[in-house]
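Appendix B, Record 12. Input sequence as logged:
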Amino acid sequence: MKLHKEANYYLGVNFLKAPIYSNEELKKIIGVDLTELRHLWIFSSKNYFKEAVEKLIHNGVKIDFEKANKVKGEWNEIRSI
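Logged structural output:
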């Protein structure tokens, strides 16, 4: 699969229109490389990935892996029980 199409799959929208040829290029455009994007997508029910994607699409704010990967408070409460 082409890199931009795979990234669009994980983003859940057709955000990237032009072909992307490297992870470095992808990181310059959206803020994370494909491995980080996949990680955020896998754990999207427990982190702030969906919010980061909304900011990317609507405001052009690149995804910050550290911020998007933070665990939501509810999950921390469940794990502490």
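The chain is about 60% helix and 0% strand.
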